[in-house]
Fold this sequence. Notes:
- By secondary structure, the chain is mostly helical.
- The protein has helices at about 1-30, 40-55, 60-90, 95-100, 105-110, 115-125, 125-135, 140-150, 155-185.
- The model is unreliable at about 90-110 (pLDDT under 50).
Amino acid sequence: MSNLFNRERRRFEAFIRQHRPSLLGLARRLCARSSLEPEDLVQETFERAMPEFEHLKDRTDSAAAAWLCTTMTNRFLDYCRRQRTESRGMPHLALVQDLALSPEETQENWELVSTDAFQKAIERLKPHLRDAYRLHAEGKRYNAIAEHFNVPVGTVGSWLTLARRDLKELLLPQVVVAREQGATSS
Length: 186
């Protein structure tokens, strides 16, 4: 049973290596004007592909690529719809959406977080998320991080997504406070 699992895992990892470059290119084009990270979109697409792999591996390369591209585009459109719905229907999320949707304003707001606070937030991450995040911040690519931890590339993508989410959750209250203090003092 373990051999069968390992063989399937290796086949799925090969599938990822084969299709990842073209998906990443598409993701970069899709995410160019959004706050969604292209790597995250690729990761979500492969997460969707995992339960379908039994069917995907029997398709031609072009049919599998078409399925992946369609799935990625649909995930991106779902993200855009969710952002639009949240911005229209939930005014109390306006501050968070401003941070998520406006890159230049986000830059300014995240600069309100001190280096010390940022380092403390990183320290509060789960160890595997913290270590993967640090390696990525040092410029290591997903493949190198995967080799370092002896895990699939997809796992690294998932860890980095979780690390970014957790850091935003940890630091957002500080950004809100600093932003409010700046608004009251001006």
